[in-house]
Specification:
Its main location: cytoplasm. The protein has 378 residues and is of the alpha+beta class. The protein is built from six helices and 26 strands. Helix 1 runs antiparallel to helix 2. The N and C termini lie far apart (70 Å).
């Protein structure tokens, strides 16, 4: 293998696939980057067995200044190789691989020789040929991920809850996540998509994917029996799927309420953040919200026996229903409010011990719902 390339473009490709590489893998060759040189260009691959990322540096793109003299492939240690390429002195660089897998990297007056591994021993990426696909704009898919992944569980005791449940049926995409203490659900209408599927994608995979999505480009999602593939231009992102049946969450969101309050999300978020300064100093990390519709008033209180207490009166945009005092984890509320963004939010309560919901005021179809379970304090 022998080629020369514009170094900055090569670094962009290395950075993309390096997201999937971990030094903790039990398969030594996966600590390396696989490099394939063909007529199409340079294909870079990184994997940790759970996720795999592959990107093509196209030879037809003149901005890459790519010239391939000899096709071939090699696997090089990711961390060291990446550091070398980033420190090379000139904008152009060249690579050549000898028969003993030693790789010579040159740029300007610098020359490095790195011991590589036989690329034929690198695990093959899954072949996903399916008509089960859906295409979304990058900004929408990124939004769906950010709105749902906050509610996935971090507890491996229930691995199925560490993922986001995606279901496509009757031209509607449903994404939902829950850790049994809170739930986040997003619905998106896809009128031109007739596919049907029901899968659970690990939350960690989706978080990594969201960092790579260009909000101005489309993302295509393809599914096989145990893998999902996301296509973004010349980059492919593979993830395993979680096995099992996701809990039925359709009955968890209440249809009615006895107390309703409306706030500007940023204003309520700021008040919750102030109250959480005290709750974080306490063992139970709980704050209380008291709602008095008759007085058009909402009060937030927090208490830490070791530090002190906090009390803040809030003026809601609207409030109606019965008086209510309810306790909850402020971190759950903060995550929910951040996911709603700069909007007006309706919070609907049923009782002090029943889950309550947060919805954007303008969302009359309940396409985006956050649900939080209160904390019993007596």
């Amino acid at each position: 293998m022998k080629f020369s390339i514009k170094r900055s473009n090569f670094i962009d490709g290395i950075n993309k696939v390096s997201r999937a590489i971990s030094n903790k893998t039990t398969i030594p060759i996966l600590t390396g980057i696989k490099i394939d040189a063909t007529k199409k260009g340079i294909t870079l691959t990184g994997s940790n067995a759970d996720i795999s990322i592959q990107t093509l540096i196209d030879s037809k793109d003149h901005d890459n200044e790519l010239a391939i003299s000899e096709p071939g492939s090699i696997v090089l240690p990711a961390r060291f190789f990446s550091s070398v390429v980033k420190k090379l002195p000139d904008e152009m660089m060249s690579m050549s691989v000898r028969d003993d897998f030693q790789t010579v990297i040159k740029s300007g007056n610098s020359s490095f020789t790195i011991n590589g591994l036989d690329a034929s021993n690198y695990p093959h990426l899954p072949k996903i040929n399916t008509d089960k696909s859906v295409k979304l704009s990058g900004d929408l898919f990124k939004e769906i991920i950010h709105q749902t992944v906050i509610a996935v569980s971090n507890q491996e005791s229930r691995p199925i809850l560490t993922g986001v449940h995606f279901a496509l049926k009757n031209s509607q995409l449903l994404a939902v996540a829950t850790d049994s203490h809170r739930l986040s659900q997003r619905k998106v209408a896809l009128p031109n998509n007739k596919a049907s599927y029901d899968v659970i994608i690990p939350g960690k995979s989706l978080m990594e994917l969201s960092r790579m999505i260009d909000q101005h480009s489309d993302v295509e999602m393809r599914l096989s029996e145990n893998q999902v593939l996301f296509l973004m231009g010349n980059t492919s992102f593979y993830s395993r799927l979680l096995e099992g049946n996701y809990p039925d969450t359709s009955q968890l969101i209440p249809d009615d309420s006895t107390t309703q309050v409306q706030f500007e999300a940023p204003a309520l978020l700021a008040a919750i953040e102030r109250a959480s300064l005290l709750s974080h100093a306490s063992r139970n990390n709980v704050i209380q919200m008291s709602l008095k519709p008759g007085q058009d008033n909402v009060t937030i209180t927090g208490n830490s026996p070791d530090v002190g207490n906090v009390k803040e009166d809030l003026k809601p945009k609207a409030i109606k229903g019965k008086d209510l005092s309810i306790s909850f984890n402020p971190d759950y509320m903060k995550d929910a409010l951040k996911s709603l963004g700069n909007t007006m939010v309706n919070i609907d309560f049923l009782s002090a011990l029943r889950p309550f919901t947060l919805l954007p005021t303008e969302d009359h179809q309940k396409n985006f719902v956050q649900l939080i379970t209160p904390v019993r304090t007596f």
